[in-house]
Design a protein that fits this description.
The complex is a heterodimer. By secondary structure, chain A is an all-beta fold. Helices cover 0% and strands 40% of the residues of chain A. Classes of the chains: A mainly beta, B alpha/beta. The complex binds flavin-adenine dinucleotide, iron/sulfur cluster (SF4) (2 copies) and FE2/S2 (inorganic) cluster (FES). One iron/sulfur cluster binds next to loops of chain B.
C-alpha cells in the first residue's frame, strides 16, 4: 500500500453504493469505490492498460472491471487477473460518515 | 455440516470425481478405497508404458501428497467386500467397517478372458506366461516376463489389443495379433476401414494379424509354447496377452443387494437406482442402458455427480455421451464416431479410399446431419467432424469439404502456427499468450478467454482460440460448466434463472446474487446481463441499482477510448430536418466537439464529449437519445423508398420511422439493428440486419430475421411475407420479444435464430403454434409504454456525482482529431 497524508475526501454519501468516484489527492489521481458490503477501497484512477477511467468501471466485492477493455483488477491487492501490471492500492476507510484516505 | 464421503475405487473416474467435488468446495471429509496399492494413475498411459515411451513416474495423476494436501484418507491396496446400505457402512476384506453419509462407487472394469483351454493354471490363476492388460501391476509383470521372451501372441483385435501388440514389439522380436471377428476394431470400424487398418498394421508395423481366429487352447505345461486355433493352426509363442474385452466390476455391489444389470444401474444424477446416497461413476455404471469404456464420458459423469452432490446444481443431469474416438491406434491415425455403417437407403454415404497410402474415410449423413464417420490413416479433419457430430451442425453443401481441406478456408492448425501469430485481432493476443495461459492452469476455453481477453472483441476468432486451447491441452479442452449459464456468476441457464427469479420475486441484481449464488458472492461481470434480464421481466417493478449498469447505461452515452463519451441524437429512419441539422451544428460548435461523424446506422455522432458536459449538451440539443450505447434497440435504417426512388415499391422510410418510434430504446440481450428497404435492390441492407424488411411488388413486405453484417456476416432468414405495414410492426414486436425472452446474454440474433431454427421461430411468432403470441404482444406493448427518454435525466442526476469526471487530470492517449 502506498502511504499518503490522511485526507478527508468528503461524505461517504458522495459515492453511491457499488460505484466509484475519482479524487485528486497529493497530486495523485485516486478512484475510491464503495462496495455493496459497505466498505471502501481506493486504487489508482488510471487503468495501466490503456489509460481507462477505472472509477467508471463495474465492481463487485472483490474486483474492478475497467470500462474500456474489461480487464479486471483485485481491489484489495491491486493485482491484475489478466496478466496486466498491478494498480496501486491506498488505505481508505469510513470515519464518522466521511471518507478518510491514508493511515 | 461436514458429511462423510466414501469412494470405492481409486481409478480414473473415482479420483476425477473427487477432484470435481473439491473444485466445487464440497463440504466433505473424503475416504477412498483402492484395490491397487497406488495413488491415482492414468490408465490410458499404460500403453505408452508398455511401449517404453513413458516412465512410471510420468503416468501418475495424483500422488500421495495430493491426497494428504486435500485431507483425503486413502486406503490403497484395500478392497471393499461389502456395502451395507441400510447401516451406511462399507466393509473391507478384513471386516473393518467405515461409515458414510454419501457413497460413490467407481470400481471400473476387469479384463475378461474368453474360455480357452489352458489359460488358467489351477494353482495360480493365469498361466504364468499369460497376461491381462489392465493395471500397472499387469503391465509391470508383462514387461518383466517379455524381456525373456521371443514371440508374443495378443488375443483381441480391438483398441486395447492393438495397443498391446504395438507395445510388445518393444520387448519381443515377433508379435501376432489374433482377432475372433472378421475385421479389426469391429466395434468402431466398418469392414473396409478394418481391412485398411490391418494392411497398415502389417505393412507399417510388421505385426502379423489373423482375423476370424478363434483361439481354443494355450499350449505348454510349465511355460507357454504356443496357442492353437479352432482350425488347428498352431502359432508358436512364449508369451500371451489377452485383451478380449472388459466387464464391469459389479460383483461386490450386486451381492450387497444393489441393482446391477450389465453395470450398476444409475439415474441421470449418477445415483444408484433406488438409493438416495449412493452413486456410481465410470466404467462400472450403466446409464440409460449404456456402459462406457472410454474416459471422455467419465469426465462428463464426474461433473454431473459433483454438481449434484455438492448442491452446486442439484438438477444437473447426465444425458449420455456421444462416443467418438480420435486416436493413434498402434501408431496409425484412427477416428470414429457414431454409426459404423449406413442404416437405410436414405442415409447418404461418402467414401474416399486410397489403399496404397492406407487412407480411408467414410461419412454417413442423415437429414444433413453427420451421424457417423470413420477415418483411417489421416485424422486431419477429425476435430471438425467430431464437432459437427457432437453438435449436429449443418453441413456444407460441398461434402468434399468435410473430408479434405479444399482451397478457400483452410482451417489453420494450431500446430503449424508460429508462437507470435496474432490470433485475436481485436485484443492483440498471440498463440503464445494463449498457450501460456493454458500452461499456467486455465484448462477451459472461457477461462483462457478471461485471462487473455482473446475472443472477447468481435468474437470471430473464438473457434481458433478453442482449437488452440484444445491443442495446448493435449487434445481436449475441459468443458466449462459455466458455458450454459446465462451470466458467468450465477450457476444457471436462462430458463432456470428466470424461473428462480420469479419464484423468489427477485427484483434487483443484488437480490439475485444474494439468493441464487452459493455463498452469495456478487460478480461484477454478471451485473449488466442480470440488469437487462430483470428489467425485461419486471418492467416498472424492477429495482434499478445503478451500479448494476455498465457506464454507458449510467450516463447514456458510449464511452470512447480516451474516456470521453459520444452523443448520438435520435434520427428516426435516418431522416432529419434542416432545423435539426442546424441545432446539431450549433451545439457541436459551442462545445467544440472534436469530431462530427455519420454513423453506420444513419445518424450523426458527436464524439469526444467529456462526461461532465453530457447534461448540458443534451439540454442544448433537446432531442431524444438515439441509443447508441446500450444493449438495446438501436436504429432502423431505411432507403429512399417510394417517396423519391424510381424503383421503390413500398414506403420504406415511413415504415422505418414507424418501427423506430414504436420500439425505440427496447432493451435486449444484445443490440438490435433493423432496416427497411423499398425494393429488393436493398439499398438499406435489410438482408443483413437483426430484423430487415423488404418491400416487394404487390404491396407486400418480406421480413428477414437473424442477419448480420458486422464481425459475423449472415443473410437473414425469411420469417414471413405479409400484406401490410401494420402486420410488419406486429411481427417485429413479437419477434423481438421472443428474442428478448429466450436469447442468451449477448447472443445476437444471427446466433439465436439458427440456434432455435427459423422454422420453429416461424411456428411461434407467425403461426402461434405455442399459443403465446398474445402474451408476447402484451409484453412488448408493456415495454413500449414504459419507454422514457433517458436524456431527460439531466436536470437532476440520478446519483451523486453521476456526471462527475472519472478522468484524471493527467494527459490521456489522444484521439486524433480530423479536420
Ligand atoms: C491399457 C489401456 C489403454 C486405454 N486407452 C484408452 C484411451 O486411449 N482412451 C480412452 O478413452 N480410454 C482408454 N482406456 C480406458 C480407460 O482407461 C478407462 O475407461 C478408465 O480407466 C475407466 O475408469 P474407471 O475409474 O471407471 O475404472 P478404473 O480406472 O479401472 O478404476 C477402478 C478402480 O477401482 C478399483 N476397485 C475395483 N473394485 C474395488 C473394490 N471392491 N474396492 C476397492 N477398489 C476397487 C480398481 O482396483 C481400480 O483401481 C484404456 C484402458 C487401458 C487398460
Ligand atoms: S468493428 Fe469497430 S468497434 Fe469493433 S474493433 Fe473494429 S473498429 Fe472497433
Ligand atoms: S432499395 Fe429499392 S426503393 Fe430503396 S432506394 Fe434502393 S432501389 Fe430505391
Ligand atoms: S484501458 Fe483499462 S482495460 Fe484497456
Amino acid at each position: 500500500m502506498k502511504t499518503l497524508t490522511p485526507t478527508v475526501l468528503g461524505p461517504i454519501t458522495d459515492i453511491p453504493l457499488g460505484e466509484g468516484r475519482t479524487y485528486a489527492v497529493d497530486g495523485e489521481m485516486i478512484a475510491v469505490f464503495r462496495l455493496r458490503d459497505g466498505s471502501l477501497r481506493a486504487v489508482s484512477a488510471v487503468c495501466p492498460h490503456k489509460g481507462g477511467p477505472l472509477a467508471d468501471g463495474q465492481i463487485d466485492n472483490r474486483i474492478v472491471v475497467c470500462p474500456l477493455h474489461l480487464y479486471a483488477w483485485d481491489l484489495a491487492t491491486g493485482c491484475s487477473q489478466s496478466g496486466q501490471p498491478p494498480i496501486s492500492v491506498y488505505p481508505v476507510r469510513e470515519d464518522a460518515g466521511r471518507i478518510l484516505l491514508g493511515e | 455440516m461436514t458429511q462423510k464421503l466414501v469412494v470405492i475405487g481409486n481409478g480414473m473416474a473415482g479420483a476425477r470425481t473427487v477432484e470435481e467435488i473439491l473444485a466445487r468446495d464440497g463440504d466433505f471429509t473424503v475416504t477412498m478405497f483402492g484395490d491397487e496399492p497406488y495413488g491415482n494413475y492414468n490408465r490410458i498411459m499404460l500403453s505408452n508404458l508398455l511401449a517404453g515411451v513413458e516412465t512410471e513416474d510420468g503416468i501418475f495423476l495424483n500422488d500421495l501428497a495430493w491426497y494428504r494436501d486435500n485431507g483425503i484418507t486413502l486406503n490403497a491396496g484395500s478392497k471393499i467386500e461389502r456395502i451395507d446400505a441400510q447401516a451406511r457402512m462399507v466393509y473391507d476384506a478384513e471386516g473393518n467397517g467405515t461409515p458414510y453419509d454419501k457413497l460413490i462407487i467407481a470400481t471400473g472394469s476387469y479384463s475378461w478372458t474368453p474360455p480357452i483351454k489352458g489359460i488358467h493354471n489351477p494353482k495360480r490363476g493365469y498361466h504364468q506366461g499369460v497376461f491381462a492388460f489392465r493395471t500397472l501391476d499387469d503391465t509391470r509383470r508383462m514387461i518383466t516376463y517379455a524381456r525373456r521372451a521371443e514371440r508374443a501372441v495378443v488375443i483381441g483385435g480391438g483398441l486395447l489389443g492393438l495397443e498391446a501388440a504395438r507395445g510388445l514389439q518393444n520387448h519381443v522380436s515377433h508379435v501376432t495379433l489374433l482377432h475372433a471377428m472378421g475385421h479389426l476394431m469391429n466395434m468402431q470400424l466398418d469392414e473396409r476401414a478394418g481391412e485398411m487398418l490391418k494392411a497398415s498394421v502389417e505393412s507399417k508395423l510388421g505385426i502379423d494379424v489373423i482375423v476370424d481366429a478363434m483361439t481354443t487352447e494355450i499350449l505348454g505345461k510349465d511355460r507357454v509354447t504356443g496357442v492353437k486355433l479352432a482350425d488347428g493352426t498352431v502359432i508358436d509363442c512364449d508369451v500371451v496377452v489377452v485383451a478380449a474385452g472388459i466387464r464391469p466390476n459389479t460383483e461386490m455391489v450386486a451381492s450387497s443387494g444393489l441393482p446391477v444389470e450389465r453395470g450398476i444401474v444409475v439415474d441421470d444424477q449418477m445415483r444408484v437406482q433406488g438409493q438416495d446416497d449412493i452413486y456410481a461413476v465410470g466404467e462400472c455404471a450403466q446409464h440409460r442402458g449404456d456402459l462406457y469404456g472410454l474416459v471422455a464420458p467419465l469426465w462428463d459423469q464426474a461433473k454431473v455427480l459433483a454438481d449434484h452432490i455438492t448442491g452446486r446444481n442439484p438438477a444437473a443431469a447426465y444425458e449420455g455421451s456421444k462416443i467418438s474416438t480420435k486416436l493413434k491406434v498402434a501408431g496409425i491415425d484412427v477416428a470414429s464416431m457414431g454409426l459404423r455403417e449406413p442404416e437405410s437407403d436414405a442415409d447418404e454415404v461418402i467414401v474416399y479410399n486410397e489403399p496404397r497410402k492406407g487412407i480411408y474415410k467414410q461419412l454417413i449423413i442423415r437429414d444433413n446431419v453427420l451421424v457417423g464417420a470413420t477415418l483411417v490413416g489421416d485424422n486431419r479433419k477429425a476435430a471438425s467432424l467430431i464437432q459437427a457430430f457432437d453438435r449436429g451442425l449443418p453441413l456444407p453443401e460441398e461434402r468434399a469439404e468435410l473430408i479434405f481441406d479444399i482451397g478457400g478456408v483452410v482451417e489453420e492448425s494450431p500446430e503449424s502456427m508460429p508462437d507470435d501469430a496474432q490470433v485475436c485481432n481485436c485484443n492483440g493476443v498471440s498463440k503464445g499468450a494463449i498457450c501460456g495461459a493454458v500452461r499456467s492452469g486455465c484448462k477451459t476455453v472461457s477461462g483462457v478467454m478471461d485471462a487473455t481477453r482473446a475472443g472477447k472483441g468481435c468474437g470471430t476468432c473464438k473457434p481458433l482460440v478453442q482449437r488452440i486451447v484444445e491443442w495446448a491441452n493435449g487434445g481436449e479442452a475441459e468443458e466449462d460448466p459455466a458455458a450454459s449459464w446465462y451470466v458467468p456468476g450465477v450457476p444457471m441457464p436462462k430458463p432456470e434463472l428466470m424461473a428462480a427469479i420469479r419464484r423468489y420475486g427477485l427484483k434487483s441484481v443484488s437480490a439475485v446474487f444474494d439468493k441464487l449464488v452459493p455463498g452469495g458472492a456478487h460478480d461484477a461481470k454478471s451485473k449488466m446481463g442480470l440488469a437487462s434480464l430483470l428489467r425485461m421481466m419486471w418492467g416498472a417493478d424492477y429495482v434499478d441499482e445503478r451500479d448494476a449498469r455498465f457506464i454507458n447505461d449510467r450516463v447514456h452515452g458510449n464511452i470512447q477510448k480516451d474516456g470521453t463519451f459520444s452523443v448520438v441524437p435520435q434520427m428516426k429512419g435516418g431522416v432529419t430536418t434542416p432545423a435539426q441539422l442546424k441545432r446539431i451544428a450549433e451545439v457541436a460548435e459551442k462545445y467544440q466537439v472534436p469530431m462530427v461523424k455519420l454513423t453506420g446506422g444513419q445518424r450523426i455522432d458527436l464524439l469526444g464529449i467529456p462526461k461532465e458536459k453530457l447534461p448540458a449538451i443534451w439540454a442544448d440539443l433537446d432531442m431524444p437519445s438515439g441509443y447508441a450505447y446500450a444493449k438495446s434497440f438501436r436504429t432502423v435504417k431505411t432507403c429512399v423508398g417510394s417517396d423519391f426512388c424510381r424503383f421503390g415499391v413500398g414506403d420504406s422510410t415511413a415504415l422505418g420511422i414507424a418501427i423506430e418510434e414504436r420500439y425505440q430504446g427496447l432493451e435486449g440481450p444484445g443490440k438490435m439493428k433493423l432496416a427497411v428497404t423499398g425494393c429488393p435492390r436493398n439499398c438499406a441492407e435489410a438482408y443483413v440486419k437483426d430484423l430487415g424488411v423488404v418491400a416487394i411488388d404487390g404491396g407486400k413486405w418480406e421480413i428477414y430475421v437473424g442477419g448480420a453484417a458486422g464481425a459475423h456476416i449472415r443473410k437473414g432468414d425469411l420469417l414471413a411475407t405479409v400484406d401490410s405495414a401494420a402486420e410488419v410492426i406486429t411481427l417485429t414486436g413479437r419477434f423481438l420479444q421472443y428474442y428478448r425472452e429466450n436469447a442468451n446474454w449477448l447472443e445476437r440474433t444471427y446466433a439465436f435464430v439458427p440456434r432455435i431454427g427459423i422454422d420453429r421461430i416461424r411456428q411461434i411468432v407467425v403461426d402461434d403454434a405455442d399459443g403465446i403470441a398474445a402474451a408476447l404482444d402484451a409484453a412488448v406493448e408493456e415495454a413500449v409504454q414504459a419507454y422514457q427518454d433517458p436524456w431527460k435525466e439531466r436536470a437532476e442526476p440520478a446519483t451523486p456525482g453521476q456526471f462527475r469526471t472519472s478522468l484524471p487530470l493527467t494527459v490521456l492517449p489522444q484521439v486524433p482529431v480530423r479536420a
